[in-house]
Specification:
alpha+beta; four-stranded antiparallel sheet; 4 strands
Length: about 90
Amino acid sequence: MKEFTHIIANEIGLHARPAGNLVKLAKSFSSKVTIEKAGKPPVNGTALMKVMGLCAMKGDEVKITIEGEDEEKAFESIKKYMDENL
């Protein structure tokens, strides 16, 4: 299992376009991807409406957990996406 935390830096937070791209990226791996924000239960990283339902805004911390056969590759790709886009 791999996990990391990320502080949302995007001015408008985790809105539709970056959330959709994140979900699309998570779906490209066989590993289970879970996203959690303080005060809310963890959500499936491949479910767009659940990810958007976190209402992660600029300054919020989210925790990404990745578990499965290709978790190392998924971890690197998702972390890079988050760092560059959110």
